[in-house]
């Protein structure tokens, strides 16, 4: 096979929408996970999950609705 044949096959596979959409979803998921893990390392207490719940104005909102 010539290089041109390999290039055409490469373009057919990686240019197809059924390849693009899953790769974009995986990329977005990976980016979110990286930001999440980074917050665990950067938080003062290491609590990335309950950080917003510790804020005073959030506690007031929770008291009003619950």
Summarize the topology:
Blueprint: H1 3-14, H2 17-42, H3 56-65
Q: What is this structure, in a nutshell?
A:
The protein has 66 residues and is mainly alpha-helical. Helices cover 73% and strands 0% of the residues.
Question: Could you characterize what this model shows?
Answer:
The chain has three helices and no strands. The longest helix has 26 residues, at 17-42. It has helices at residues 3-14, 17-42, 56-65. The protein is mainly alpha-helical and 66 residues long. It has one domain (3-65). The mean pLDDT is 84.
Alpha carbon gyration radius: 22 Å
Helix and strand content put the structural class at mainly alpha
Broad shape: elongated
Q: Could you state the order of secondary-structure elements as H and E?
A: HHH
Biggest pleated-sheet summary: none
As a percent range, the share of strand residues is: under 5%
What is the end-to-end distance?
A: 69 Å
The level of helicity is over 70%
Number of DSSP helical runs: 3
Please mark out the parts with pLDDT under 50 across 5 or more consecutive residues, or reply none.
none
List keywords for this structure.
single chain, 66 residues, mainly alpha, 3 helices, 73% helix
